[in-house]
Automatic annotation (TrEMBL):
A matching Pfam family: EcKL
Protein name listed in UniProt: Uncharacterized protein LOC111597534
Domain CHK kinase-like, chain residue ranges per copy: 139-329
Gene name linked to the record: LOC111597534
Species, as recorded: Drosophila hydei
Amino acid sequence: MSNDDNYNSDELEAPAWLDKHFLQDALVKHFKKPSLIATESKISPASAKGDHYASVMFRATVQYSVQKRKFSKSLIIKTMPQAEGHKKEFLADSKIFQTEIAMFTEVLPKFEAILREAGEEIKFCATCVYHSLDPRPVIIFEDLVPQGYQVIRDRYATLTELRSVLGKLAKWQAVSFKLLKEQPGTFNELQFDLTTLSNFLEHDFMKTALPNFIDMISQEENLKEYRKYFEPMRENLLKRWQDVVREYRENRQSNAYYVLCHGDFHIRNTMFNNDGDCMLLDFQISYIGSIANDLHYAKYMLLGPDERKDRCDELLFYFFDTFVKTLLKIGYQGEMPSLVEFRRQIFDRRYSDYMLLTIFLPGSYNMRKGKDPGALLQDENLRKQLYQDKSYKQELEYLLPRMMHLGYFELPEQK
């Protein structure tokens, strides 16, 4: 395999506009140093194949000087794909950059300031250096790699790392829970989730996933008894999952715990350092929704198989305990959430569980192998092969009985 095969093909060559003059202008505005001069820039792909799909990303190492003093800075540049094709069509008319810019420049800095005022120094994400929507969507932020953070690629996250990232999410969501009751206008721009991407639920990848899953378990001696639970979902799984995701906007429940959801809370959207800290990445589809949503997502896209099997309850309790302690710390005066109600709300939104188990978890196994997610969107044979993954089938042999024992296959009534 050549080095080029390790990267997304649309990130092998930077667009012409991404040169040292553009980067100089961005740094001048960020540092407010008109005398700053970029002397050299080196552009390379920012991430490995399979890390992301909804953008193209580059790493720029910029050499620059300010009043004869020399400096170097590593930056990450995120922009929209220019090449015609499926990715460009998929992202057409989306609000992903508007959402991420709002998160980087307004929402997350506000969260950090609230926690800082309560005595907790915390940073959720990299520092945004530059952003623009015209003439093209682009966001530049500091590269976290020189600061000691790494994406986990060749292993599963440890229990300590999982507690770190779930603890950070709990603090983020506690602040949002309080602000939603006190200053709901803070989140006016965050109206766009995964289901609002152009024709997302109409893609073959989504529509053929459950049938492929049912076909696979029908042929497995240890799994075929569960087919009867999934057959009734053929007609409505995608719609019912969409209802869960859009609940706050379209069918708000008076007693629900609503928070700012990350929206794509998986292992490749986190970075860890050796001191146990983590940073969160990719806020393109963050939205207001049930507290259950990111946690369902984390179960299948963040945790490894051992943690899914043996540590889910422990990690959910850790998240909830951190969430409540943070509410107290930041001075929340309303009725405090209860663990029993928290668990009930997660259970009631179990259509997300079905969705993630049957569609996203096999995709996660594929992602961990460094495969290109774009290929799955266009090749039905590859999509069918997802369900033949040996490790995935082994997980189903204990996940499906557990779901049955917990009552997951008694389908929730529509509210």
